[in-house]
Specification:
By secondary structure, the protein is of the alpha/beta class. It has 12 helices and 8 strands. An 8-stranded mixed β-sheet has the order 3-4-2-5-1-6-7-8, sandwiched between helices. Helix 1 crosses helix 11 and helix 7 crosses helix 12. It is globular and about 55 Å long. It starts with 6 loop residues before the first strand and ends with a helix.
Length: 269
């Protein structure tokens, strides 16, 4: 992949669907082939990079700002597995402030202290929640993300959230690179998510089966790429990483209405 055109992507999806795990494994897979990769965790939980840093939590930009620290690159950019540059934005104090505004402030700081956002072959933003919240649309609104990838499963609520995200992308005029199914072992899950992606005018770019290895590696503080490099699931993440880096056919999605979404699910009962 080394030498390919630079890409800036956002990974979106319903909370708990596996965005951070997917983002970190894609980052690791790209980095091990020689790409310069930066992973920016925008989730207030600040755990996007933890499996690239062997379980270590790193200082967040917003926490350091609250301490009044004069931030330097080495304070917030940490080298993880295979040289992935790891950054955690952090979140507002509980009950105070706006996470979206926090992302804006943190990115402004990051731009000042490092060139890696501009020089990396791949920059991944792990974005929490639903893009219908204006704050979490920040990476797209600010022109930081060239294309979005949506993570879902074949169940109704994750698909509903994914469709909502597509409504936001459509309103913003933002491109969807593809849909990723992170399996929850629902019936006919791959067929359902493939049909959903096609309904958006997009494609199913990967089907990630539910396997124990992923949880075991996370518990050990490792990505699958590092912890079980010869496993089938590691190869799936590598194929996904390759497809993302080689994908130049992104399109603005056409979201479904709820009736169409229900019909897809009923079709595969």
């Amino acid at each position: 992949m080394q030498g390919s055109n630079k890409k800036h992507i956002g990974i979106y999806g319903k909370g708990g669907i596996g965005k951070s795990s997917t983002a970190s494994n894609v980052a690791a897979a790209c980095a091990e082939t020689g790409d310069d990769v930066m992973l920016i965790g925008c989730d207030p939980k600040s755990d996007t990079s933890i499996t690239l840093l062997r379980g270590q939590r790193i200082p967040t930009i917003l926490d350091l700002l609250r301490l009044g620290k004069d931030i330097k690159e080495e304070d917030v950019v940490f080298d993880g597995y295979a040289g992935v540059k790891c950054v955690e934005v952090g979140g507002p104090e509980p009950g105070i402030g706006c996470a979206g505004r926090g992302i804006i402030v943190a990115i402004q700081v990051l731009r000042k202290v490092t060139d890696a956002m501009h020089t990396s072959d791949l920059v991944i933003y792990d974005v929490p929640g639903d893009i219908v919240c204006g704050g979490f649309a920040v990476p797209i609104r600010k022109g930081l993300v060239d294309e979005a990838y949506i993570l879902t499963s074949g169940e109704y609520m994750p698909l509903y959230a994914a469709n909502n995200i597509c409504k936001g992308l459509n309103k913003l005029g933002a491109s969807l690179g593809g849909v990723i199914c992170n399996s929850r072992e629902a019936s006919n899950e791959e067929a359902i998510t493939r049909r959903f992606a096609e309904g958006l005018g997009s494609k199913l770019i990967a089907f990630i089966p539910k396997v124990k290895i992923v949880q075991d590696c996370e518990r050990a503080g490792l990505s699958v790429i590092e912890g079980c490099p010869r496993s089938k699931i590691a190869e799936i993440y590598r194929e996904l990483a390759s497809d993302i880096m080689g994908n130049w056919e992104s399109k603005i999605p056409e979201p479904l209405d709820d009736k169409e979404l229900r019909e897809i699910l009923l079709q595969y009962e």
